[in-house]
Amino acid sequence: MPTIRHDTLPLNGLDLHVAQVGSGPPLLLLHGWPEFWLTWEPVMARLSERFTCIAPDLRGFGRTGKPDAGPNDKVGPKAHVQDMLALLDALGLDRVGVVSHDVGAYVAQGLAHAAPERMDGLFFFDCPYGGIGPRLGAPENLREIWYQSFHLMPYAADLVGSSREACNTYVGGILRHWSGPNPHAFDDVIEDFVDNFLQPGNLQGGFDWYLSQNASRIAMIRGEAPVPKPIAVPTCIRWGDSSPLFPYAWTDRLPEYFSNLDLAPFPGAAHFPHREKPDAAAAEIGNFFNRR
User: Fold this and answer.
1) Would you please indicate which residues are annotated as catalytic (active-site) residues?
2) What is the pTM of this model?
């Protein structure tokens, strides 16, 4: 793989870090929690001969600046969408393909609603969306979503960041659990992930997403989340068939949210197909965008 280039761009009120590699049509890779740009490195290596891979650290994450000391409940999807549109402008990109999951999936949906003319297509590994509804907070699911409430606590970042061991236990434990049948998917980078989240502001920066989304999460659990106009941008969703966090059965309402949808399970993977099975993940991404 060619050397990954790292840049920090002043835009939209913060210094945004972005990793880039490759040549060809641009793909914007949007990470989730508990991740940062490095989560995409395996698929970047496999796609860089055909695509320009652009992997930013979202606001509050990684090497991107922390303009807010936190806790901060004003960094929901709209803020991230404005950051990403500013990034596309800074890079001189009129249109881009978007690859995302988890937090990044919310941002990608926001981009498609705000600026569909700039999207060459949307690709998701899993796709949290309003149609999950009350199932998110069902009693049998509480053991999986407890962390979303924990992240609202003002002491959460201090507790997780109280020692390297504590951070490794928390972040590493979640990465292993959410990788389902592939618990060693992050073993080669787990120390890098711990290093990242121990940097000043990075734990709270990630937790701020949950503070900002709490009202929307409660509305979803109550069954009151509004159904937006369906996204017409061509969309491909490959949903891990072994995810303990987002069961494949929750895909049933996706056609209400995406009017041009290619949906299929991703076999043998859970929440992180891009790390668990990078060969197959890169092939799915490449096949979709090569058709565009």
Assistant:
1) 102, 210, 271
2) 0.97
